[in-house]
Amino acid sequence: MARVGYGAAQLPRLHDRRGEAVALLRRAVELGVNHVDTAEFYGFGFANAVIREALRPEDGVLVVTKVGADPNPGGRLPLRAAQRPEQLRASVEDNLRSLGVDQLPVVNLRRLDSGPGLRPEGYQVVDLDDQLAVMTSLRDEGKIGAIGLSSVTINGLRRALPAGIVCVQNAYSLVSRDDEDMLRLCAAEGIAWVPFFPLGGAFPGLPKVTEEPAVHAVAESLGVTPSQVGLAWLLHHAPHVLLIPGTADPAHLEANMAVGELTFDDATRDTLDAVESRSNEVTLG
Question: Is residue 34 a contact partner of residue 61, using CB atoms and an 8 Å limit?
Fold first, then answer.
């Protein structure tokens, strides 16, 4: 598995330029991307439609999708929680249909327990065991190949381990490292760590990697961008980290893919490791 993949969340920015979106994804494959992160709620199905058009079986690209939220057209927020077992099953069916496949290789259950974003309320508060029951049933039926978790706490991950978890996708970056214990648990269990918001704040109130003076100093010394330094730090921090940076810009795509070639000496790593970690617990909705 290549350690730098592609996150499709930005593809909807090209909604009126579908040909460019397809070309961007084809370019990602040319650059070595072999895993793509997506969801039916990215652009209300647009991202999945582009993936279906752009990717070919011979590309050997692993498509990882997620459930636990649904589109919310016209709402104050573009998403709403969809945590009920019947909603998880419906979301799997939606992803199967929009991607045009018989099986989703990996599906992340987004729990909404931690990190920035929505929090479940009322009838959307569902026990993890009930959710894992439907996810394992879908796996037994052959509709999904493997189960991942997202926005999960370390206790939630421990409870889920018997179900066979292959990856964890939490908000995590150089400036938000609250999940170090969970990262180590994943390493011990052979679980991939796939950080979203790998450069920090996509929401107001979240710290941003690219605003750190130390990151700028390192970038200048290496002749790269602060974003590349932040992404490369994740790869150097732990060997089981897989990146899924998203972009709608071909130049940014190439810059993201190049971070796999960046190396840090010990002094540089010490400088970056000394950056203060701040909370990313920002609730929306």
Answer: yes
Interatomic CA distance for residues 117 and 60, integer angstroms: 32
Is pLDDT of 40 > 80?
A: yes
Catalytic residue among 6, 42, 123, 172: 42
For the chain, state the CA radius of gyration: 18
Q: CA torsion sign, 265 to 271 to 276 to 282?
A: negative
pLDDT > 90 fraction of the chain, expressed in percent and rounded = 88
Distance CA 242, CA 172 (A): 12
The percent of residues in the chain predicted with pLDDT above 70, rounded, is 99
Q: Which is it for strands 144-150 and 165-169: parallel, antiparallel or unpaired?
A: parallel
- Catalytic: 172? no
- pTM value? 0.95
Token representation of residue 103? 């099986």
Distance CA 1, CA 3 (A): 6
